[in-house]
Design a protein that fits this description.
The chain has 15 helices and 13 strands. The chain is of the alpha+beta class.
Length: 542
């Protein structure tokens, strides 16, 4: 009789990747909350980027979608000098976090800040699972970039051009229906009212949302690169077409039912176009779903057992180091600005005294514009002086808020006045002026309304600290110069202080020098220190 002996051996302990994964993911996600804090200010105040709140959640969803088909980890151990790398990364992150706190509207800085975080996530994937994991999860991680605001050099001309194109196209369509319509900037002049094509109606919001939807659907259906590109282009086309239909519909409502009907139908029309774009994009993705990336072999549970515990421990230490570095950077940022802000000098508050003439007319800002400006108080007026010049004044007040720099960086004459059909023609040298004991820095400009010149005088008055004289031109500064400016403002502890702005447009003045002299005389009459007798107070800063 033959006896068979079965020999058993105790295998080396295997580490379950799932058990080790979640603590690291929790630390990295916690770090992301602090990383995206300055970016969230843009999501809050700019309706074009309100969808940014959803991007991190969608990225987590895409990560979860790829998790069941994740490849096996590489068995190769990694060697990395973690401490020096984290030290350099932490210092770079702290520098750009301080800059983002001073100016959350510095978009290259936001991209670098999030880029440092994304690079760390990709590095963690490489440490944890090697190149197979890096390739598998790179798209959900890089999807976070869609939440960032575009550079002004791209966004500003695209927004203005989309508004003008949409305005002209809708006006032409109305004239084809025998409805008198004349485009003027981003305003459609109808027989009974005017319809303004605001930034959110320009198509830029639909454009950005369609880009996100196209990327999302392409990933869900695992389309090939060429099909994903085709889907994104189709989504953009649907978004622009839907935006034109919405503006055309609102113009018809304004013509037949008056301007009040636009407010009642504005949100409904916008929601309908969102559904139209999403459903149309989904149909295209569904039609292309047969052209998907070849499926990968899903490894078994045994193959997913870790064969490189040293690499896994290194990845865990990386996650802990990143979280602690981000947390310490956030604490240091808040402590620094809290200390430096207490030393900022307070400036004299002032009120505004409006002229009392027979031609004086108080203007009313639309609710949408007031919401976009995010101001706490405003006063708009128009009048003619004894020489027959036409004056228009816009006074805005902002209480201290962290996102004041975002609003002030976008809502400037160069960006806003083209929407009423004025074309920027020239910048004059800025000048400092002391009026009634108040120190102002004025930026004069010339616009063209048709062929007629309009002289615009723009000032921003901080209630604490000092603003740089190039407040409205900083988006065109070179990167190195911009970085030096931010470092100086970080050292001074400037962030989101309360401000008052005054924009005065002078029409029918013969030349700049005459307009400048008339403006200074008017400024002496309008801007008076708070508490002076005989003034009409339209608001006071804090």
């Amino acid at each position: 009789m033959v006896t068979t002996r079965l020999e058993t051996s105790t295998p080396e302990p295997a580490t379950d990747l799932v058990a080790l994964l979640w603590p690291s993911l929790a630390l990295l996600a916690g770090a992301g909350i602090f990383v995206f804090r300055p970016v969230a200010m843009t999501w809050k105040v700019d309706p074009n980027y309100a969808f940014g709140w959803w991007i991190p959640l969608v990225a987590l969803f895409l990560f979860a979608e790829r998790w069941p088909t994740r490849p096996a980890c590489e068995a190769k151990e990694r060697k990395l000098l973690l401490a020096p790398a984290i030290a350099v990364w932490g210092l770079a992150f702290l520098a750009f976090r301080l800059a983002a706190e001073s100016d959350p509207d510095w978009r290259p800085g936001l991209w670098i800040l999030v880029g440092l975080y994304v690079a760390t996530l990709l590095g963690w994937l490489w440490l944890y699972g090697g190149f197979p994991w890096l390739r598998n999860f790179a798209f959900p991680v890089c999807f976070l970039f869609l939440s960032l605001p575009w550079f002004y050099q791209v966004e500003a001309p695209l927004t203005q051009n989309l508004m003008r194109w949409n305005t002209v196209l809708v006006a032409d369509s109305l004239r084809m229906l025998a409805i008198a319509a004349q485009p003027a900037g981003n305003i459609i002049e109808l027989q009974n009212c005017q319809l303004g094509v605001e930034e959110a109606c320009s198509g830029i919001l639909s454009f950005q949302a369609a880009l996100m939807v196209g990327c999302l659907l392409g990933e869900i259906y695992r389309l090939t690169f060429r099909c994903r590109l085709l889907l994104i282009l189709g989504s953009l086309l649907f978004a622009l077409t839907g935006n034109y239909l919405r503006t055309f519909f609102l113009a018809l409502m304004a013509f037949y039912n008056g301007a009040d009907a636009v407010g009642r139908w504005h949100d409904t029309a916008g929601f309908s176009i969102l559904i139209f774009t999403a459903v149309s994009s989904w149909l295209v993705a569904f039609a292309l779903k047969g052209k998907t990336v070849p499926a990968v072999n899903v490894p078994s549970v045994a193959e997913r057992k870790d064969r490189g515990p040293g690499r896994i421990r290194l990845a865990q230490r990386l996650a802990m180091a990143v979280f602690m570095s981000v947390l310490l950077a956030e604490m240091a940022t808040q402590a620094w600005f809290g200390w430096r802000e207490s030393a900022l000098a307070r400036h004299q508050e002032w009120t505004m005294k409006l002229p009392k003439t027979d031609s004086f007319q108080a203007l009313t800002m639309s609710d949408f514009t007031r919401q976009a400006l995010r101001c706490d108080a405003d006063q708009e007026s128009q009048w003619r002086d004894a020489k027959g010049w036409k004056w228009t004044a816009y006074w805005l007040q902002y209480q201290p808020k962290p996102y004041n720099r975002i609003v002030l960086g976008w809502h400037i004459p160069d960006n806003c006045l083209p929407s009423v059909g004025w074309k920027k023609d020239q910048d004059y040298p800025g000048f400092a002026v002391r009026v009634n004991g108040l120190d102002f820095y004025v930026k004069p400009k010339r616009f063209l309304a048709g062929e007629s010149p309009v002289y615009v005088f723009w000032l921003v008055y901080p209630l604490r600290g000092d603003l740089p004289p190039d407040t409205d031109t900083r988006i065109s500064l070179p990167f190195a110069q911009k970085l030096r400016l931010h470092l100086q403002q970080v050292w001074d502890g400037y962030r989101g202080v309360g401000v008052e702005t005054l924009e005065v447009a002078v029409e029918e003045a013969p030349d700049y020098e005459s307009a400048r002299t008339g403006y200074l005389d008017a400024l002496k009459a309008m801007a008076v220190p708070a508490g002076s007798a005989g003034t009409l107070a339209v608001g006071m800063g804090r």
